[in-house]
Amino acid sequence: MTTNAAGSTPDALPSASLPADTRGGTRRSHPLLWVPTGYFTMALAYVMLTSVTAIMFKNLGMDNGKAAEYASYLILAYTIKPLFAPFVEMYRTKKFFVLCAQLAIAMGFGAVALAMSLPGYMAIMVALFVVLSFVGATQDIASDGVYVTALDARSQSLYCGIQSLSWNIGPIVASGGLVYLSGWLHTNTFHHDPKVFGPDWIDSWRIVFWIVAGITLLMALWHLRTMPEGAKAANAPQSIDEAKAILKDSFITFFQKRDVWLMIGFAFLFRLSIGLLEKIGPFFMVDPKVEGGLGLSNELLGIVYGTYGLAAVLLGSLLGGLFVARRGLRPTLFLLCCAVNIPNVTFLLMAIYQPTDLLVISAGVAIEKFFFGFGSVGFMIYLMQQLAPGKYTTTHYAFGTGLMGLCMLVTGSVSGHLQEYLGYVHYFWFVMAATIPSFLVTWFAPFHHAEG
Question: TM segments (predicted)?
Fold first, then answer.
């Protein structure tokens, strides 16, 4: 599972007992009825907002700098969600927030589709996306809360794999299927030139947003019937002042950790080069060859980047987890850092030679994505085992993933402007140079807790 779903709820949430609505074991609340759909819906909103929007901005004629920058800003809400998670815990039930968030997301994407017909639609869309990012982050907090409090410890472990798999289906549908659909509709239904970026792309993307709105609405109706309420945490804050006090104490204890600044540096810098590559990689695929890109259509981008690439991430994550389980984290962490960063060279090679063979392009993307998935497992385990332990384990883990999100926000917001200034070949050389801080923080990363 990607990091945005982790660490959303306050600490000490009860996980050893089931609330009344699930204790009876009725089919209505069986985890298989709501865990897969819940995490798929979370991922769909997240990926549409933070990744697919960049492709849409690019299609609509926005330059690389602004397209990457605007899409990166939408990561902010997911980065700071630990700050407002205690307030979600205070009111009503977690299911209530899940349903409200999903209904709002459905309405929001529908509003985006409608706004694309208005003059000045771009500013309206960006404003709607910002609101939707905070709603999506709230959905994550509440959905994680239902999972943690409606299932006992054994069930949490039992369904963890299904949770992770279901979340990762979201990027395949969004970055793969829906990006492919946007290109197919643009070319075959509306008969526009796929190589020309501009307002003609509105027609196909409007349909994509209506589809996302419809899927999310269906998920909300499904969860209304199948999702349990989620128990209230035993130590949930009873007032805003109490919630503020919990947040303050969690910050104080976080910065009291031994070698905390080394761990903060690790959390922020481990995936620095990936942050520089995340938004620019798809742009490189669709930009014409005369501009240094590979000239792929949206359909091929959806297949190569959103399907083959994401499948490689899943396989790499699985094998990386097995590798760490067998060898341990401490002796393998630097090797895992190498796996994340060194294969970025495939993009540099593709920028230099600009291959036309789809098999070669697919192999280059799959290699980078496979090793990214393989190595990123070490990052998440380090946060769990070394950064998070203490009084506020869940919150401190969320701080760690938030630092990673902050890195993605900062690097993503500047990546497009840097690429336009440097050109693709020199930019990918810069990405390779940006791996050096990752190697340094990994080499000096402290280990103060026994591995789980």
Answer: 32-55, 67-84, 96-114, 120-137, 158-185, 205-224, 260-280, 300-325, 332-353, 359-384, 396-415, 427-447
